[in-house]
């Protein structure tokens, strides 16, 4: 188990996350939920994981956040 890396992300991952935020219309309220969760410094497994916030999900693998999904889209990995 480790911590999620939120800063100094590889350029391709960072751009993908920004693109998904815009494409999936993640709201300011959703981002606030994500901010609060980030501040709790959650531990994540080495493999695939996801956190369901109800209106959206964030998915990652190991220390890297990888994408955002909408409510109802299936996620793979360990639920957090």
Written account of the structure:
There is one protein chain. The protein is an alpha+beta fold and 80 residues long. The protein has one domain. Helix content is 31%, strand content 30%. The protein has helices at 11-23, 28-39, and strands spanning 2-3, 43-44, 48-52, 56-61, 64-70, 78-79. Strands 5-4-3-6 form a 4-stranded mixed beta sheet. The chain has a two-stranded antiparallel ribbon with strand order 1-2. The termini are close together. The model has no long low-confidence stretch (mean pLDDT 93).
- How many structural domains are formed by the residues? 1
The average pLDDT score comes to: 93
pLDDT < 50 runs, ≥5 residues = none
Biggest sheet: strand arrangement: 5-4-3-6
Largest sheet composition:
4 strands, mixed
Report how far apart the termini are. Answer: 12 Å
- What is the element string, with H for helices and E for strands? EHHEEEEE
Radius of gyration from CA coordinates? 12 Å
| Strand tally | 6
